[in-house]
Structures are given as structure tokens and as C-alpha cells.
Specification:
With 325 residues, the protein is of the alpha/beta class. Helices cover 49% and strands 12% of the residues. The strands form three sheets. It has a four-stranded parallel beta sheet with strand order 2-1-3-4, sandwiched between helices.
């Protein structure tokens, strides 16, 4: 083969390679554009806490993307957002959050999203919130009259919020099918009704003189009101885990526990148990610390990875802790 022919074939091969590369680039460009268009067209809902995230996903189903900001086993009072997560809030069609001061490091980002025109829904504010009482009444000192954000410990209030979230999704998230959203909400509401009935039956095993609760911090006011318990105190005398107890707080609590004959403390599994363990020393031993999943879901498969499973796990643990069964 002559040198001229070699050069000609080389030019032809190079041209074919350039065409092939150009074709591949075109295909990638089209695919990327299609994917971006699909992502842009797909409606999105951002939820702050994983408890509300689970409930919202049950309502929305496959009708929209639901992004949950709070990781499993996190503390809603102290978790924060990355820059990417903060940006997701302002790009959402709807933001669902607890409110009432719960997500202390996130609420300013929710406010920024609202100011930018994003629809937001404060579930706690729509759940007929209770207010904290004075310390003498078993509530957090210094927070009298402030709303209690922990409404989800009452499944009836979660039932109410379920319907409200559904209506918010229908109103603010384009392209969802209203009939599907309402059907999902109705199905889940039935499960919540069954949960309430089961909890009533379970708590019925606890005698009236043993219905006194001591917790890591004040989180079960709604449950106490709904199912007939008395919250006599908390290791952290506040509605937030970011507060700290004083020696006088612990002394008052131990006196209240001794007066009520209570030897069980319920501590959230996402929090260090050091403060609850202190009571064992204060009361001379014999205090039982029972872990609950009161403010966060667990990772998948860890026993409390949905709201329904969390409530059932907590109910079982509370009944066992109070009755010794």
C-alpha cells in the first residue's frame, strides 16, 4: 500500500471517529435535557422532620417527590441544614414543617422559602396545640403559655393533620391527582383510627395509680391528655433538649418522683441518657430508664421507622415500663 493510500485511509478513519464522537455527544445532550426536563416538571414537596415526612409520603404516594430533611435518629431541636438542603426549600412546590419552635435551627430557612413565594404549612399550628404549664403543674418552668410542639404523640391530632396536609398538596402542588391524594389520606386516616383504638386498649392495662410519667424532657403532654396520664416532671425541665437542668431542678424532680412512687424514667433514644442516669444516683438506685422513640424515626428496619411503628413501639415500652409486665 502506497504512502498516499495510507494517508487517505487515516483521514477517512479520523473523520468517521469525529462523526461517531459528535453523535455520542448529541445523544448525551438529548438524554440530559430530557432528564432535566423530567426533573423540572416533577412536583416536589420538602418536609422538615422525618415523622411528618413519613406521613406526607403516605398521603402523596407516587404523585410527587417528597424530600425529608431530618435524618433518622436525629434531634429535631438541633439538626441543621446544608447549603444544598436550604436551596431545596426555596425550590419546592410545598414545604411541610412542624413549627411551634420545634425545628429551632431550620425555621429561619422555612421563613426564607416562604418569603421567596413557596407555599408552607405548619402542621403543629393546625393541630389545636396545647400550651406548656408551670413547673408546679408538671410542665416546663419558664415556658408557661408557650405552645407545645409535640402534637404527634396524640394520634387523633395526627389524624386531623393528615387531612390538612392532603388539602395543602392538592392546592399547591401542580399535576397531582386530587382523587388519589384524598384516597391515600383516607386510607392512612383509617390506620390512625386503628392505632388510637389499639393504644387505648394497651394503656387500659396501666392502673390509675401508676399513670405518672417522667421523661427526658417535656414531650408527652398531648399523649398524657389524650390517654389519661399525668406528667409529673422531666429531667430537662423544658420542651427542648437544648436546655439544661440545674441541681435544684433535679432535686425537685426526685422529690416529685418519690412522692408519686415513680421509679421509671422514659428517655428519648436519640438523646444521651446521662441526665436520666443521674436520677439513679439521686434516688439511691432502683430507677429504671426506658428508651422511647419520641421525636425521631429510626433507620429502616430498626423498629420505629414509620410513625405507626414508632407509636406502637412507644406504647408497648410505656405499658411495660409502668406495669413491670
Amino acid at each position: 500500500m502506497s504512502p498516499t493510500e495510507v494517508k487517505r485511509r487515516a483521514r477517512v478513519g479520523a473523520a468517521r471517529l469525529r462523526h461517531l464522537i459528535a453523535g455520542l455527544i448529541a445523544l448525551v445532550t438529548v438524554a440530559t435535557a430530557t432528564a432535566c426536563a423530567t426533573d423540572d416538571d416533577r412536583p416536589g414537596i420538602v418536609v422538615t422532620t422525618n415523622i411528618l415526612g413519613d406521613v406526607t409520603r403516605e398521603i402523596v404516594g407516587d404523585e410527587a417527590d417528597v424530600t425529608v430533611l431530618m435524618k433518622p435518629n436525629a434531634d429535631p431541636h438541633s439538626f441543621g441544614l446544608s447549603a444544598v438542603q436550604a436551596a431545596e426549600l426555596e425550590q419546592a412546590d410545598l414545604v411541610v414543617y412542624n413549627g411551634l419552635g420545634l425545628e429551632e435551627n431550620v425555621l429561619r430557612h422555612v421563613g426564607a422559602a416562604r418569603e421567596s413565594g413557596v407555599a408552607t404549612f405548619a402542621a403543629g399550628e393546625a393541630a389545636d396545640p396545647l400550651t406548656f404549664h408551670t413547673a408546679d403543674d408538671g410542665g416546663p418552668e419558664g415556658e408557661e403559655g408557650q405552645p407545645d410542639p409535640h402534637f404527634w404523640t396524640d394520634p387523633d391530632r395526627m389524624h386531623r393533620v393528615t387531612g390538612l396536609i392532603a388539602e395543602q398538596v392538592i392546592e399547591h402542588v401542580n399535576s397531582v391527582d386530587p382523587a388519589t391524594i384524598r384516597a391515600n389520606a383516607d386510607r392512612y386516616a383509617k390506620q390512625l383510627t386503628d392505632l388510637t383504638t389499639w393504644m387505648e386498649t394497651s394503656f387500659g392495662r396501666v392502673p390509675a395509680d401508676q399513670r405518672a410519667l417522667v421523661t427526658n424532657h417535656h414531650v408527652f403532654g398531648y399523649l398524657a391528655e389524650r390517654f389519661g396520664f399525668e406528667v409529673i416532671g422531666a429531667v430537662i425541665p423544658s420542651g427542648t433538649t437544648l436546655a439544661s437542668p440545674s441541681s435544684s431542678d433535679l432535686r425537685s424532680l426526685t422529690e416529685a418522683m418519690e412522692g408519686a412512687g415513680v421509679r421509671t424514667v422514659f428517655a428519648d433514644s436519640s438523646q444521651p441518657k446521662r441526665l436520666a442516669e443521674v436520677l439513679r444516683t439521686e434516688l439511691g438506685g432502683g430507677v429504671r430508664v426506658v428508651e422511647l422513640h419520641s421525636e425521631s424515626l429510626t433507620a429502616k428496619g430498626a423498629g420505629a421507622d414509620t410513625y405507626l411503628r414508632m407509636m406502637r413501639a412507644n406504647t408497648t415500652a410505656m405499658v411495660t415500663g409502668l406495669t413491670g409486665d
